[in-house]
TrEMBL record:
Record gene name: mtnA
Function: Catalyzes the interconversion of methylthioribose-1-phosphate (MTR-1-P) into methylthioribulose-1-phosphate (MTRu-1-P).
Name this polypeptide is given: Methylthioribose-1-phosphate isomerase
Site positions per UniProt: Transition state stabilizer: 153
Active site as annotated: 233
InterPro entries hit by this protein: IF-2B-related, IF-M1Pi, IF_2B-like_C, Initiation_fac_2B_a/b/d, M1Pi_N, NagB/RpiA_transferase-like
GO molecular function: S-methyl-5-thioribose-1-phosphate isomerase activity
Organism: Ignavibacterium album (strain DSM 19864 / JCM 16511 / NBRC 101810 / Mat9-16)
NCBIfam families per the UniProt record, alphabetical: eIF-2B_rel (TIGR00524), PRK05720.1 (NF004326), salvage_mtnA (TIGR00512)
Pathway connected to this protein: Amino-acid biosynthesis; L-methionine biosynthesis via salvage pathway; L-methionine from S-methyl-5-thio-alpha-D-ribose 1-phosphate: step 1/6
Amino acid sequence: MKNNSYFPLKFENDYLIFIDQTKLPLQENYISTDDYNRIAEAIERLEIRGAPLIGIAAAYACALAFKNKNEKDDNYFNKVYNRLASTRPTAVNLFYALKEIEKVYSSIDDINIYEYLLLTAHKIFSDEEKFSEKIAKNGLNIFLKRSNVLTHCNTGALATAGFGTAFAIVKNAFDHQLINHVYVDETRPLLQGLRLTAFELEKNEIPFTVQTDSSAAVLMQEGKIDLVITGADRIALNGDSANKIGTYNLAILCNFHNIPFYIAAPSTTIDRTIATGAEIAIEFRSSKELLFVGDKQIGKESYHCFCPAFDVTPSHLIRGIITEEGVFSFPYNFIR
Ligand code: MRU
């Protein structure tokens, strides 16, 4: 697959350069920093977002925290680790990456801490790139014909390394003439579908339509959707999957209309410490994200708002989970 003209982040000359996703699609602004706290803020503000990308960014942040330090300092390491771990609770990739960094930090002596942590961050990045490529290949197996696909949130190059998860499947399927049209949920309240997935589909010249989240049912009723593919932020051992709020609605709609509902995610999104989705910590975000569209206030600040960033789709509603290892189907059992 041809490389994109944009990138979510890259490491160059001892700085992390990332695209500010809050400004897309209208502005393509890149920010350069070597400050781990600035990277933590970027994750909190969703300048950097998407489960695998959060993990990659956190790993680079830990490395950069040691750029000018020549000796180990456990208190400082714990401070950096905890700052990054506190940014977003749901995507398990963040904690996977931090644990990989911690393992390396604990195993090395005083010298070259920065170089070792950096190598670990580079490896996490390149592993995710390889997983994305394999997910894209495995995902071809779910297409029985040239299809109309609906997706939710953003799962493309902006959310991972490589071409993404669900998005990488769509792109690969399109390249194999298996995609007719892509329907993109706008993804309220932060509009990752309207702003980011539409941006990526346009850049990749894949035909698409954006609709309000509440239009998915009518599209299905009219027979316009052949399958739905989304990403995930954390998958329990039984296959219950947390993803952007609204994903559970889609899974119910798919089951009602007998449309296959698939999740695509790398194995780094599987949390092997939890049996079911009941144990997934769901992030709640500020009511401002509901009351404002961009900078424009549309609701009164006195309104009580319900603002979960994610929901959990029970595994029996998921036709298949596509990882770099293959396509799994219900009943899921990810214990190894
Ligand atoms: O709040 P976000 O934008 O970080 O949420 C992202 C999602 O829910 C994605 O669907 C998920 O991380 C999968 S990305 C490969």
